[in-house]
Amino acid sequence: MQFDVEGGQFSLFELDRDIRQAKMTFEKKGDFTLAAIFISKDRIAVLDTNREVTVGNFDGSNTKKWPITKKGMTKIDMIFPAPLGKILVQADDCLFMYDMSARKVMCELAIADVKRV
Predict the structure, then answer these.
(1) What is the value of pTM for the model shown?
(2) 15, 86, 103, 110: most buried, per Cβ within 10 A?
């Protein structure tokens, strides 16, 4: 869940598989974030208020800043979920699909003011 309060924050909850006993087995919170999305079954990408993308596991291990590069790009405005291993990035009045493993732009669309994908 992503909240737009106090600089932005996300909360990640993992619940037990038994529906009759809905107990939480894991919780993670992150402060000062603009967006948090799933990029695989055990990894998330987080856009912080400095407009930098951080990729890591749910438990916080193996976390690193991920440099998203595109010719002529100044700053990232928002990230959105995409197919496995990719993210949609809104920056400089365009929306592009970025492949996290190949570290390159797959396709691009010139569009401004995207609210949801």
Answers:
(1) 0.79
(2) 86
